[in-house]
Amino acid sequence: MLDGFRIGLTAFLALFATGAMAADSGAFQWETVGAETYATYCGACHQLNGQGVPDTFPALAGHAPTVLARPGGRDYLVRLVLYGLEGPITAGGKPFNGAMPPWGEVLSDAQLAGALDYVLHSWDNDKALPAGFQPFTPADIAAARSKQMTAAEVYALRGEAARAPPAVASVPLTFTQEQADRGHTLYRRNCQDCHGSNLNDGEFGGAPLNGQYFVRHWGSGTVAALFGYMRAKMPPDRPGRLNPQTYADLTAFLLAQNGYQPGQTELPPDHEAQERMDLKR
Ligand code: HEC
Ligand code: HEC
Fold it and tell me: pLDDT tens digits for 185-209?
């Protein structure tokens, strides 16, 4: 049905360029605005057939309903299109480490809601939607505009949403004392000026990395959220420029400083494993 629909699309667009509300029912008609927005803005990377580009742009066919199904998935999708995404992810079982641009400044609420609805209804994705799925509406997008986020914060949100998805068992948190000690050395060299030798007494305004502040920000997420944040934003003058093992060692150091117990196995830099390691106690 969508394929036939797309053939008539160009003709349709002339009539309904930005029109999105059905005058009679008041319900959001996502079909036209969604197909147009996808074709013009999203398809360049994710491809018109939703298959993406290997190693570069994730496929949305098959993948988008999985994202929706996660805890907080609906809210996450809205923020993803508004504010972008940056950081290593696994999509459809394959790793990606790119950046999705933010669209909030470029596209309207109706265009963004329409694009999400289009993606979720195309390429058989609709067969995987939960019963009673309500299409995204412009009001969903408008509501999320009140809290501006960075692409890195959306990434952290993804980590939270990915926490303990029902199909994936969580694995115990692991790091070693030796790794935490290595992390300490790296911390002194790269982080201490701003975050301080006690992690809460930096001279250049770094946020506290321990105590209640740490618990509030990271304590209910996964290791992947903390690691992903650091890799996306720290150190501020060259974010992501330390190697993954260094970020893993720094993470081990922060965990040790926050009372997590070291064990026999190092914390891996591997994103998928980290997504399954819960920081909740
Ligand atoms: C310039 C290329 C580009 C465009 C245009 C683009 N995306 Fe993306 N998108 C990406 C990349 C790259 C990722 C993976 C980001 C990462 O690795 O962190 C992504 C990821 C996604 C994901 C998966 C998110 C997840 O958590 O698994 C969805 C859904 C998505 N994009 C939807 C859209 C929609 C809808 C549009 C149009 C409004 C769009 N994208 C436009 C590059 C793009
Ligand atoms: C130039 C100063 C500076 C340096 C160097 C620096 N940071 Fe930061 N860091 C900050 C600032 C400022 C924030 C608060 C950012 C914000 O709220 O957007 C922050 C935030 C953080 C946070 C999040 C704290 C929270 O709970 O909100 C973590 C984790 C972090 N830094 C780790 C590191 C690590 C690890 C390094 C070394 C690789 C490092 N930082 C180097 C300034 C710095």
Answer: 999 999 999 999 999 998 888 999 9
